[in-house]
What we know:
By secondary structure, the protein is mostly helical. The longest helix is centred in the first third of the chain and has 28 residues, at 24-51. It has five helices and no strands. Helices cover 82% and strands 0% of the residues. Helix 3 packs antiparallel against helix 4 and helix 4 packs across helix 5.
Amino acid sequence: LTVNILCSLSCLYYSPDLKNEVANWTFVLCALGTFIYQTFDALDGKQSFAVQNSQLEELTDHGCDAVSTIFLSLSFSSAIQLGNSPTLLYLCFIFILSSFFSAHFVGHITQSMIFKKLVKLLPFLFLLFY
Length: 130
């Protein structure tokens, strides 16, 4: 999680208002940080499932994923300079966070990730928050 946050903060350092152009190396750094985060997150999940899968571990994992989603959304917004359009910035964050919440909520209820049915639900959730 720390790697992901530091990589995203490098983008925000060069464009704190999400309007300015950012150097290309920061996006390469963000991509590398995301890869490292996802790899360690998957390995941590496999190890946790093999040893013991407690509710506290699951809560911590989902909490880290939520924080990571926020920082990755900021990096994404910086990459396409969404600060120039506050309405699109708001809609982008609402869509990303509602997608994250609905995916984790469905995963919590069904104990598995169902991508096909979740994709059908996203437009309705988007309209609900809009």
